[in-house]
Design goal:
Helix content is 26%, strand content 26%. α5 crosses α8 (323-335). By secondary structure, it is an alpha+beta fold. It folds into two domains: 3-92, Roll (Ubiquitin-like (UB roll)), CATH 3.10.20.70; 101-335, Glutamine synthetase/guanido kinase, catalytic domain (Creatine Kinase, Chain A, domain 2). The protein binds adenosine-5'-diphosphate and manganese (II) ion (3 copies).
Length: 336
């Protein structure tokens, strides 16, 4: 037995968009299973999860990962927030997803989430002239060269950290707006993708911190003729991935259209600033799906149409969405 550092990560009660919190507990290690990771608690009155006179809230570990920053046997611990008596706290959206994931387990749903984000240094996106604007969008998407991409060293460190933490990161790319980037997590099941996306966000903030840079997931970090930031959510079930699955995908697209407003309600705050119908988006007031259409709400990839099986891409979720909620409503709408 030796002492290890366990970084306990949880989601706070901040509105309209929850934020990540974390603190360190020194525990006995190495840890061999979740049973070795103790329950813990925190001051909920400082995280918008309690009033001062009854402030204790519980941290219930649900997953742990090797800590790629501290190394050794140290771990990152993802938690659900509960009341001291074990009851689910209102800010805890994971508990609802656990129930939906169990209910629809036979569908074998997979998700791949494309997390877009923007680096900021002070008040400007990284690489932008102080108080001014760079050249118009065009050359920056998947660009190369010191005049086109900003923050690649952070992106590389983050990707490496995700891999070492065992996160199913599937790639990264520079985005359309300079200083904006994307990483993808998946394909994975509903709880795995959501837990891992939150931990990948944690690692991004934590690593950028060492560079004196802030990573923002605001859906429209710069107003005007600049791309917003989304979290396209790619989705499939077992039957969609099997021969002839295209028909099931079309049915799913139809079902999604019937609950457009309910989906938008959990697809992230300020999303109306991003879903304008410009910049590769469909208006927030419309619902459309189409093959290979990046101006639609839901895109069916060309390869899926050609193979007659595959997955769909819901392009509506914004970068600041809660993956527990997005994964849950997709399961509920498509599989019910
Ligand atoms: P885009 O072309 O929209 O930029 P990306 O390559 O960035 O797409 O992201 C696609 C995501 O979809 C990846 O995370 C990938 O792992 C995931 N994905 C691939 N196949 C499936 C599938 N059958 N079901 C769900 N997600 C999938
Ligand atoms: Mn992408
Ligand atoms: Mn993108
Ligand atoms: Mn996409």
């Amino acid at each position: 037995m030796a002492k290890i550092k366990a970084e306990y990560i949880w989601i706070d009660g901040h509105k309209p968009t929850s934020k990540l919190r974390s603190k360190t507990k020194v525990i006995n290690g190495p840890v061999a299973s979740l049973d070795d990771v103790p329950e813990w608690g925190f001051d909920g009155s400082s995280t918008m999860q309690a009033a001062g006179h009854d402030s204790d809230r519980a941290l219930h570990p649900v997953a742990y990962y090797p800590d790629p920053i501290r190394g050794g046997d140290n771990i990152l611990v993802m938690n659900e927030v509960r009341y001291p008596d074990g009851k689910t706290h209102e800010s805890n959206k994971r508990a609802g997803l656990v129930a939906l994931a169990e209910k629809h387990a036979a569908e074998e749903a997979w998700y791949g989430i494309e997390q877009e984000y923007t680096f900021f240094q002070g008040r400007s996106p990284l690489g932008w002239p102080d108080g001014g604007y760079p050249a118009p969008q065009g050359p920056f998407y998947c660009g190369v060269g010191a005049d086109e991409v900003f923050g690649r060293d952070i992106v590389e460190d983050h990707m490496e950290a995700c891999i070492r933490a065992g996160i199913e990161i599937s790639g990264v790319n520079a985005e359309v707006m300079p200083g904006q980037w994307e990483f993808q997590v998946g394909p994975l099941g509903p709880l795995e993708v959501a837990d891992q996306l939150w931990v990948a966000r944690y690692l991004l903030y934590r690593i950028a911190e060492d560079y004196g840079v802030n990573a923002s997931i605001h859906p429209k970090p710069v107003k005007g003729d600049w791309n917003g930031a989304g979290a396209h959510t790619n989705f499939s079930t077992k039957s969609m991935r099997e021969d002839g699955g295209y028909k099931i995908i079309e049915e799913a697209c139809e079902k999604l259209g019937k609950r457009h407003e309910e989906h938008i309600a959990v697809y992230g705050a300020h999303n109306e600033e991003r879903l304008t119908g410009l910049h590769e988006t469909c208006s927030i007031h419309e619902y459309r799906y189409g093959v290979s259409d990046r101006g639609a709400s839901v895109r069916i990839p060309l390869a899926t149409a050609k193979d007659n099986k595959g997955y769909l891409e819901d392009r509506r979720p914004s970068a600041n969405m809660d993956p527990y909620e997005v994964a849950g409503i997709l399961l509920d709408t498509i599989c019910s």
